């Protein structure tokens, strides 16, 4: 084989290796990006489900505590904000408002023993607790995916490939609002 043939073969092998290497990095970024998108979708599904439950809870509490209009309005506004959140930061801020509003709503329920023993209210409260647990799990899954993607984007040589492609962006974490962190650190006593 002539020398120029060997040189051409080496050049082809090097080009194929570089293209395969870049394609592998790109594909790994696509997979991580899609995982984060899927996790965000899971969060929005759970937030929507909770938002659909809230009017039922409010109506049930209204039946016992008609004079608490300010709290009902606060819950309605927090629900609207949560439904309108488009970004992770907006959703986190809406979550903070929702936690405060729901906390006030359930504090009102504590003052009405007949409400606390109402079967419909207890069922709704259980469904809300279930969806809160699912939101928390979805948030952890999302944050893990965001961490993996953010780390990959910053890591050499992926950062070089991403700078050339310029397609993948750092994702914000879905941070637990301060009010919720306090609630987690010192969980309130719930008595039925």
> What count of domains describes the coordinates?
1
Share of residues in strands? under 5%
Helix content: over 70%
Largest sheet: none
The helix/strand order is: HHHHHHH
Structural class comes to mainly alpha
> Judging from the principal axes of the Cα atoms, what is the shape?
rod-shaped
Rg on CA atoms, Å: 25 Å
Gap from first CA to last CA: 87 Å
DSSP helix count?
A: 7
Describe this structure in words.
It contains 7 helices and no strands. About 5% of the residues have low confidence. The radius of gyration is 25 Å and the shape is rod-shaped. With 192 residues, it is mainly alpha-helical. Helices cover 81% and strands 0% of the residues. α1 packs antiparallel against α5. The protein has one domain.
Q: How is this fold's topology laid out?
A:
Layout: H1 3-62, H2 69-84, H3 88-110, H4 113-116, H5 119-154, H6 158-165, H7 178-185
Helix pairs in contact: 1-2, 1-5, 2-3
């Amino acid at each position: 084989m002539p020398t120029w043939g060997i040189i051409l073969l080496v050049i082809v092998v090097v080009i194929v290796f570089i293209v395969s290497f870049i394609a592998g990095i790109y594909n790994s970024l696509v997979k991580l990006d899609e995982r984060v998108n899927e996790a965000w979708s899971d969060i929005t599904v759970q937030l929507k489900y909770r938002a659909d439950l809230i009017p039922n809870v409010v109506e049930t509490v209204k039946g016992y505590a008609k004079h608490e209009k300010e709290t009902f309005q606060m819950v309605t506004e927090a629900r609207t904000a949560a439904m309108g959140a488009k970004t992770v930061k907006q959703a986190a801020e809406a979550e903070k408002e929702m936690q405060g509003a729901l906390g006030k709503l359930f504090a009102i329920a504590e003052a009405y023993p007949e409400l606390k023993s109402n079967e419909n209210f207890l069922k709704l409260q259980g469904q809300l607790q279930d969806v809160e647990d699912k939101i928390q799990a979805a948030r952890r899954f999302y944050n893990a995916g965001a961490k993996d993607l953010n780390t990959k984007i910053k890591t050499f040589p992926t950062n070089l490939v991403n700078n050339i492609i310029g397609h993948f962006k750092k994702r914000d974490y879905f941070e637990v609002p301060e009010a919720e962190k306090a609630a987690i650190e010192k969980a309130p006593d719930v008595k039925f």
